# Entry
Amino acid sequence: MEQRITCINCPVGCRMTVTLNEAGEVLKVEGNTCPRGAKYARQECTLPLRMITAVIPVENAATPLSVKTASPVPKKMISQVMEALKQVQVSAPVSLGQVILPDVCGTGVDMIATRPLA
Amino acid sequence: MNRERVDILIIGAGPAGLAAAIAAREDGISSLLVLEREAQPGGILRQCIHNGFGLHRFQEELTGPEYAQRDIDRARELDIPIECGVTVLSVSADRVVTCVSPTHGLRQIEAGAVILAMGCRERPRGALCTPGTRCAGIYSAGTAQRFVNLEGFMPGKRVVILGSGDIGLIMARRMTLQGAKVLACVEIMPYSSGLNRNIVQCLQDYDIPLYLSHTVTDIQGRERLERVIVSEVDARRRPIPGTEMAFDCDTLLLSVGLIPENELSESAGVQLSPTTSGAVVSDSFETSVPGVFACGNVLHVHDLVDHVSDESFQAGHAAAAFVRGEPRAERWFRVEDGEGIRGCVPQKIQLCPSASVTLMFRPADVFRNASVVISCSERELVRRKAMIFTPGEMASYSLKPECFQGLSETDPIVVRIEKGVD
# Structure
């Protein structure tokens, strides 16, 4: 099986072709011009990861609170994480880095505040 | 009218203004003041809640609010006064700043030096000459970003995005994640000016189609936007009849370029560059008006805030030197845009710079396997090859002080791109 991946590491944007076996293991990466590309392509074909950032309403403040996953989570979890965020109730004050939702959707990653809110 | 005096007055408390203020304070300037129009410092970073800021400066990926907070915290540590909710109305050539606020009314502040750090604005619909009705539902991408991220409103449910700059791409993802349906991103050029990373993570991740060499050719709707018509364009960017596609949508977001906001600079008589739309500056970021400095997106539109901060630290140091009355350069090299280059900054360099000078510019087109060549008369100062140069990525090259030895200021320093052989 072959998968096509555009590299995101730099503006060159190499178009890479990744060959996988039936078990989903990477056999080879072609089209990259540097090792960073190959590493990204392997990750992207096996377990693509994304940072998720969002805003959630705050009960006692006019401005919403911006939050992020403390580290990247599997891409397939994005919609579940957004859904879980809808259930979160938060009220000011909030400090920068405060955990808003621990271990979001069983990813082992916390959702944290990216700004202080007095 | 109240009349005050400060050594350095900084207009704007975004990343540029904050960095300039921090640098000036660290240089020992005790009398300085930052004026900010918004209710809080941080500038546009406050609404850029996505991550990817600070890789160069902090070696980590921060969100916009986190990046801003570091400078805000540092400014607080240094006890830098930041007055928010203050609108500057004009700056005079002798550095008298007129401003107004609900708490202090109209006042004038005399400044030993002024640092312009007002940032930039988005190109509006009117600048595009798009035909169609004047219905509601058409926003610049940054305005929509402000609604969603700072005010907690969704501007619409079915969205088309015109322009594939990074703000447009980021908003395609944001609107999708917050529950809207983004139907298409439409780009008139045959390439996107956004980062590959944003094309992958903001469009492809959500199966949002990107139509290159396409543009919006009609906007339809009575009260609210109902439909946009998208057409393919030819090599000269003229719509091709028969290629029309209709998208039923209630929202059109425009991400079609940024323009430095220089009304105040003009009031001071600062000379502007027609290519950058920002001030013409020296290597110390001083404009054509003595004691008036410019940095950040008001000077030229950057891709990375890290570079804004870096440039603004330099401007802050230079303004501090000016206030202390340090000797100033009187003879200059001119810097000119050569082939394939647009908007090189700074436009002039003092004859014997004591530190390295960084030249920043944008390629005028996409060039593959090409070289940047910086030369003066017959002498090559820098030659650097790269696999790709694109207008979406600002290029910068540093010239060491010894580069300038033996050069004559009668010849300009020319930056150009030499095409490679494919």
